[in-house]
Write a structure and sequence with these properties.
Layout lengths: L2 H28 L1 E5 L14 E5 L2 H4 L7 E5 L4 E8 L4 E5 L2 E4 L2 E2 L7 H4 L5 E5 L4 E5 L16 E2 L3 E10 L5 E2 L2
Antiparallel strand pairs: 1-2, 2-11, 3-4, 3-11, 4-9, 5-6, 5-8, 6-7, 9-10, 11-12
Length: 174
């Protein structure tokens, strides 16, 4: 092999590595990232210590919808919660059932025990540009009812897509 050919081979390898690093950087910063679930507020859907992949790109082209599990960025820590109410809607919780604009909201993601721990709340209208979120484990969840308040659209940094760790828990979170 000639010196020139070896040099070209090294240049090609360096180019490939640089391109791979740039692509990884772009994906990590603009499309996908990971977050660790801290606490039991989303149990049984998400358990403490699980690592989830969230999609940052989805909300660049669309808005959060009812039932989406989102990552909320706050200065002290990130939160993982479920979107319950959208901007302009009126939320009320009566006898453990959630009502959105007076219509009962069907929650197929909350088990009966957790639902029975959802106390009465509201009615309250969600301001434009804000969302109402709750954890699936209602008894211990810090959410829009009791500490997080309404969530600004700018604070929602992505939608949870799937669990990647622990490996035996791989699953979609939607």
């Amino acid at each position: 092999m000639t010196k020139s050919k070896k040099k070209n081979e090294w240049v090609e390898w360096i180019k490939a590595i640089v391109i791979a690093i740039v692509i990884a950087f772009l994906l990590r910063n603009f499309v996908f990232a990971t977050s660790i679930v801290d606490g039991d507020s989303m149990a049984p859907t998400l358990e403490n210590g699980e690592r989830v992949v969230f999609n940052k790109f989805s909300y660049l082209i669309g808005d959060p919808e009812h039932g989406d599990i989102v990552i909320i960025q706050r200065p002290q820590k990130n939160y993982v919660k479920r979107i319950i109410g959208l901007p302009g809607e009126t939320i009320e919780i009566v006898n453990h059932d959630i009502y959105i604009n007076g219509k009962k909201y069907e929650e197929n993601f909350v088990n009966k025990e957790a639902k029975m721990l959802t106390g009465n709340f509201g009615p309250i209208k969600i301001p434009e540009g804000s969302y109402f979120v709750m954890g699936d484990n209602r008894a211990i969840s810090k959410d829009s009812r009791n500490g997080l308040g309404f969530i600004s659209r700018d604070d929602i940094i992505g939608r949870s897509e799937f669990i990647i760790f622990p490996f035996n828990e791989w699953a979609l979170t939607r």
